Amino acid sequence: MNISRSVFLLVLALSFCVSFGALSSIFDVTSTSEDFITCLQSNSNNVTTISQLVFTPANTSYIPVWQAAADPIRFNKSYIPKPSVIVTPTDETQIQTALLCAKKHGYEFRIRDGGHDFEGNSYTANAPFVMLDLVHMRAIEINVENRTALVQGGALLGELYYTISQKTDTLYFPAGIWAGVGVSGFLSGGGYGNLLRKYGLGADNVLDIRFMDVNGNILDRKSMGEDLFWALRGGGASSFGIVLQWKLNLVPVPERVTLFMVSYTLEQGATDIFHKYQYVLPKFDRDLLIRVQLNTEYIGNTTQKTVRILFHGIYQGNIDTLLPLLNQSFPELNVTREVCQEVRMVQTTLEFGGFNISTPTSVLANRSAIPKLSFKGKSDYVRTPIPRSGLRKLWRKMFENDNSQTLFMYTFGGKMEEYSDTAIPYPHRAGVLYQVFKRVDFVDQPSDKTLISLRRLAWLRSFDKTLEPYVTSNPREAYMNYNDLDLGFDSATYEEASEWGERYWKRENFKKLIRIKAKVDPENFFRHPQSIPVFSRPLSDM
Ligand SMILES: Cc1cc2nc3c(=O)[nH]c(=O)nc-3n(C[C@H](O)[C@H](O)[C@H](O)COP(=O)(O)OP(=O)(O)OC[C@H]3O[C@@H](n4cnc5c(N)ncnc54)[C@H](O)[C@@H]3O)c2cc1C
Ligand SMILES: *[C@@H]1O[C@H](CO)[C@@H](O)[C@H](O)[C@H]1NC(C)=O
Ligand SMILES: *[C@@H]1O[C@H](CO)[C@@H](O)[C@H](O)[C@H]1NC(C)=O
Ligand SMILES: *[C@@H]1O[C@H](CO)[C@@H](O)[C@H](O)[C@H]1NC(C)=O
Ligand SMILES: *[C@@H]1O[C@H](CO)[C@@H](O)[C@H](O)[C@H]1NC(C)=O
Ligand SMILES: *[C@@H]1O[C@H](CO)[C@@H](O)[C@H](O)[C@H]1NC(C)=O
Ligand SMILES: *[C@@H]1O[C@H](CO)[C@@H](O)[C@H](O)[C@H]1NC(C)=O
Ligand SMILES: *[C@@H]1O[C@H](CO)[C@@H](O)[C@H](O)[C@H]1NC(C)=O
Ligand SMILES: *[C@@H]1O[C@H](CO)[C@@H](O)[C@H](O)[C@H]1NC(C)=O
Ligand SMILES: *[C@@H]1O[C@H](CO)[C@@H](O)[C@H](O)[C@H]1NC(C)=O
Questions:
Q1: Can 79 be counted among the known catalytic residues?
Q2: Which residue of 61, 99, 454, 477 pairs with 472 in a disulfide if CB–CB is 3.0 to 4.6 A?
Q3: Does the C-beta of 67 come closer than 6 Å to ligand 4?
Q4: Where is the FAD-binding PCMH-type domain (predicted)?
């Protein structure tokens, strides 16, 4: 099969780099990373094997290995702090050894799957750290009969989709739209995607987790208990330990689903259409999901700007069923047969993920083919439709930027209405009309530090203020997987931490996560700037 072949090729390519790296390593490693490596070697049953899986700045392949999954590439820069040692284990014993040696030698620890963390938390840190890169641990087993998948902690969404599609067109997993996103980061923050309105979040479809705790014990759902199992599905796994494998519930999809796209500018009535969208789509048949994309552009070749609003739809059924439904409740959207096509579910992932339906599906399992992005992003949730006057204010604010921003409104409702806010840590459920994701891009800039980049960042932060009256408040909800250090980090008190923690999880869930963290990792070994904090006083005192 293609995937196992490409994994094989990758391993082959890597072992080639390895011997080349060893020959050309002329630098000395620092004494501390030497201690760590000695610890690794003396706890391994095969020194040759482990040496080939460990990289320090002295190895020529260190930078390429680190860069391979540093996406958003905003952080792929020489000035970004890098790990003292990278470990790329091939089995669980090696993970255990790396963990115990990092603890013993006082390193911080970072775990990387797809490397799509918005703030680079999986591959950069402000203290000496060991990076555990799960790139070799991405086996995927699909069980069609029982509709389950076993997915190792280092797999990517694209690899999961492709592997499912090699077995069947009528099962899928309700995950995100970008092939390069890691299954582990995605699921441990909740994880939404094109099947959200029908089947809920990715994390709602996790059946079991194989997990390593801070002492190197390997646990499953039964032995970890329901509290920790709850926390790992939306609370961010990297606050608690290492996910080795996910057991997932696959969901049925039709052999052919319908894709469509229409777009309108302000001159074509986009404001009214978007205004109506807010009332109609969140309550619509849950087989339909629409992602709305908003950009600014110049009108023709003038210097006058407009907003273009693009409605990208995916319907779990055929064109003939969809058209009358939409024509009845939302004729203004003018979805006609000409803008629709029936495709396999896996092709919709291509279409939404930077490719198109003609691209061979194998591209989803090819890490180097996935486009690289460079941006700063932020999220919000809308529970009350924004009035037309508010929309016009947003458009005017958007005109102030240089067209480098994109807004995505992701329709909620449907199945999401059926979960309580405390079912898992992810609390943005019943009553949410849509999620807002806004970003400014730096792809055309050498870094996020240029004058132009800084101006875009400043615009994004001021746009947040313009949005404030129209989005949720107390707390102003934000998506943990769109982590944003502007909200605060490294907080010493609950009050400080609540500034970001209650936005990601709301108070009840955040407090529960803090209690679980205190039990599972009381020394706070698994930490990063926005990990679940450990306080010296118990929570009830606060
Ligand atoms: C281009 C792009 C598109 C996106 N699209 C979507 C989308 O459609 N839907 C959605 O919900 N989100 C989306 N996201 C957000 C995405 O879910 C998060 O960025 C997610 O954390 C990325 O996971 P990762 O494994 O790729 O990242 P990583 O940077 O590898 O990890 C993210 C976090 O998870 C931790 N982690 C990773 N692996 C493990 C493990 N095995 N055990 C414990 N902790 C682990 C890391 O330490 C880090 O804290 C998108 C992000 C980007 C950049
Ligand atoms: C990195 O360099 C060290 C020291 O030369 C060597 O032992 C090790 O095998 C190298 N690692 C890789 C992956 O090449
Ligand atoms: C260690 O592993 C290598 C392959 O990585 C193998 O060639 C060698 O025989 C092994 N050594 C021992 C002692 O098992
Ligand atoms: C990271 O930057 C280097 C140049 O510094 C570039 O060669 C490499 O392709 C980049 N990696 C990614 C993933 O963009
Ligand atoms: C599916 O589950 C049933 C019941 O647990 C089991 O008997 C059967 O072997 C499973 N099928 C496969 C293909 O794993
Ligand atoms: C811009 O538009 C005007 C009128 O629509 C046209 O005459 C002119 O050629 C255009 N200029 C360019 C550079 O396309
Ligand atoms: C919607 O239905 C009306 C009445 O049947 C019809 O005239 C119109 O063409 C339809 N519009 C679309 C976009 O299908
Ligand atoms: C609806 O879309 C069709 C093309 O799909 C187009 O011909 C028609 O003019 C549009 N109608 C309206 C009212 O925009
Ligand atoms: C589809 O994507 C491929 C690359 O994957 C590209 O070569 C082709 O031109 C695209 N086709 C269309 C219609 O955009
Ligand atoms: C993966 O994608 C890269 C970049 O597009 C391409 O060069 C390479 O041939 C692809 N590999 C496979 C196995 O398809």
A1: no
A2: 477
A3: yes
A4: 79-253
- CATH number where 50 lies: 3.30.43.10
Considering the domain architecture, whether residues 424 and 326 belong to the same structural domain is answered as: yes
Q: What is the pLDDT along the chain (542 residues), one digit of tens a residue?
A: 344 434 433 333 433 333 333 333 333 345 578 899 999 999 998 898 999 999 999 999 999 999 988 776 788 888 899 999 999 999 999 999 999 999 999 999 999 999 999 999 999 999 999 999 999 999 999 999 999 999 999 999 999 999 999 999 999 999 999 999 999 999 999 999 999 999 999 999 999 999 999 999 999 999 999 999 999 999 999 999 999 999 999 999 999 999 999 999 999 999 999 999 999 999 999 999 999 999 999 999 999 999 999 999 999 999 999 999 999 999 999 999 999 999 999 999 999 999 999 999 999 999 999 988 999 999 999 999 999 999 999 999 999 999 999 999 999 999 999 999 999 999 999 999 999 999 999 999 988 999 999 999 999 999 999 999 999 999 999 999 999 999 999 999 999 999 999 999 999 999 999 999 999 999 999 999 999 999 987 766 54
Structure tokens at 483: 């982590």
Check if the beta carbon of residue 84 is closer than 8 Å to that of residue 30: yes
Q: What are the residue ranges of helices labelled H in 211-342?
A: 221-224, 226-231, 270-280, 319-329
HEC sequence for 357-388: CCCCHHHHHCHHHCCCCCEEEEEEEECCCCCH
Q: Quick one: 203 and 108 in the same domain?
A: no
Domain co-membership, 163 together with 121: no
On whether both 406 and 294 belong to a single domain, the answer is: yes
Q: Could you tell me the distance, in angstroms and rounded to a whole number, from the CA of residue 365 to the centre of ligand 9?
A: 17
- Are 267 and 382 contained in the same domain? yes
CATH number, domain containing residue 430: 3.40.462.20
Residue 304, both tokens: 């006058």
The amino acid at 536: S
Ligand 2 site-directed mutation target among 23, 51, 87, most atoms within 8 Å of CB: 51
